[in-house]
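To fix ideas, we quote verbatim a fold written out as tokens:
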Amino acid sequence: MVKQTLESKFSVPPVQKREIFGWAMYDFANSSYTTVVITVIYSAFFVEQIVPASSTAKDSYWSIAIILATIVSLIFSPFVGVLCDFSGHKKKYLMASTLLCSLGTAALFWVEPGSVTLGIFLLVISNVGFMLGENFCASFLPDLASKEKMALISGIGWGIGYMGGLASLLLVLAVVPEKGTAGFIKSNQWAMVAIGCFFFIAALPTFLLVKERSRPAPGFESFNWNKLIGAGFSSLQSSLSIVRQYPVLFQFLLAFMVYMAGLEVVIKFVGIYATAELQFGTGELTIMFLIIQFSAMAGALGFGFVESKIGPKTTVLLTLILWVICIVGIIVVDQIAAFMGSDPKNVFFAISLLAGAGIGSTQSSSRAVVGMLTPARHSGQMFGFWGLFAKLSIVLGMTFGFISDALDSRRMALVLVIGFFVVGGILLLRIPLTQGIEAAKKES
């Protein structure tokens, strides 16, 4: 009788289409945070309005907020993995991380000009919630999709996520006036409340439609800090020993970390740069974001076709060359505009079109390389390491803020970004990818 009760309790229901929709809606929801808070709107608002005008550390404060959030997320990541693998309560922890991000974002309402410390604190809280939520959400994918359908389902979430970013940005555009007009600061504060609510409400389909399918591992039926910490360190040690067995993968992850640092600068500072250096208003930021989003989708598809013809290594190298061209173009945007008899803003829009294609293709091609270098039986752990090196690239890239302030020139600091792409490309050139891919096939 007890056995039957347990089997009934842990029976796994079949996956329904509405669950796929519910899961993908989390990408729709959390894209609002990255789009509005990190990339386009609040980043520029924080640097231009919250940090005092007399400060010589404007970009540095933004870098500090991103770095602190990333470090906290890195510290918790091994334990999040254990909770995903052993707890059997992933949805509960996903809800906790969602509330952390939503409430942290809404609380930015109380950050007034000059309240830099409070702003950094709330940015760290909300960003940690976002990053941990990404991990918990991704852990549902193996429960919802077979290996054959996993890429398709993941792609659905990715595509819906773009729409969530767009919808949230249009929401903010409706309530935030152009910079310099009456009510600009208060409107931005209310916009953070709106985005906090948008995130939580848009995520509700995930909690209402997706079923909890994982079972608690023996000993993890209830939360226990000692077991969690012990299992987290054991998992980390196991992953480290596996990485040593695949040196080509580790070499690629190092190259990936360096060139992705350049990409992280673009993602985290594009709103700040466009607002401060080119005097973009809210409407122009929206146009820029739309250009980047749609070209990113096209770039991921277009370079995906190219990758099938010339291979992932050459494809990544081509995207890095594209990035160097884009960054050089941004540095000399005024000269290009004068030569063409155009406005620097229009030239920047054109560069954004190229840069967007680079964002989609660089990320997509790099993920493909990790998949090719990873034996199937270690895919979970190795993609976990991919996530680890992606977070390390954020920390490395955020040195841009300190260098920008030290040089008192964002344009001069962009040379650092070129360096990230060039060094990452050189490291990639030296990696015997073909050898690593063949070794992974033999292990699978």
User: Anything to note?
Assistant: The domain at 18-217 is CATH 1.20.1250.20 (Growth Hormone; Chain: A;). The chain has two domains: 18-217, 236-444.
